[in-house]
């Protein structure tokens, strides 16, 4: 399996902000999440259309693996992604803090304790709403198509996840959808969150956690409707195909079709009698009649497995040979009759002499 560096996104709820005497911000964050995520093929280094999406499954036993959770401890915090793993060469330019301690499971998420030390980064959190998190990590991708418990199909399974850094992102940048949102970026006051319903109308909800739940519920309903419509479309396609088949069958039973088919069967039987005289035919399918004739005329060949085109070509050749043989036999018969007639018409002595040679009679 190839190890690839990717960036995954979730969100954290800033309800436990504390500041040290040195002015550092200490806050827990939801950094990683189980379930499925969509990626572009180019993000995972896969062949094919680089912009084609693939679905990756992050099973709980991998996300909550002890070694994976331990990799959170000491991971650097960045503002946005540096475009590569944080390392000794870019550390001074990218790191604005770190994670203290290992990650820990929290429902579908992994929660970690962040310490943000850079004053500008703290200001971006407080004033510009950089409160969403995106995990930068390495992982291995196992090609494995399957379906999760909630019915989501996936193409790969993510394994051996190792965290390199969490990046602070502005609102709306999270990969995890509407759950990846700011919950409490203004601890001293309440904020109103606008939720767009499936009918297009927008309402404002004061509690952001409730707003997230409402939005997620609407998303699930929309997905259920889309899945139901897809199933209806699939069934309609089946019905349309059956209707087309019925139309073809009806056309095949029309008078002119019946007449044409009877002629085809009659012609096939007549020609087959030439190829295999005396054979009994138990089919009204011209091709099957040809197979039966060939099976008698050339029994060493397995005609059952041959294609229609092959059978028809072989039958035509056999028929032509039979016609040629019959023509030669008729030609010889006529020559014999003509010869006998010519001899009978000669003067009697000559005829008697000719006959005596065959009967060994003495003149």
UniProtKB/TrEMBL annotation:
Keyword Coiled coil: yes
Highest taxon of source: Bacteria
Coiled-coil stretches noted in the UniProt entry, renumbered to this chain: 218-245
Name of protein: DUF2213 domain-containing protein
Source species of the chain: Castellaniella ginsengisoli
UniProt KW keywords: Coiled coil
Region Disordered, annotated ranges: 326-348
Compositionally biased spans, kind Basic and acidic residues: 326-347
Keyword hit for Coiled coil: yes
Cross-referenced InterPro entries: UCP029215 (IPR016913)
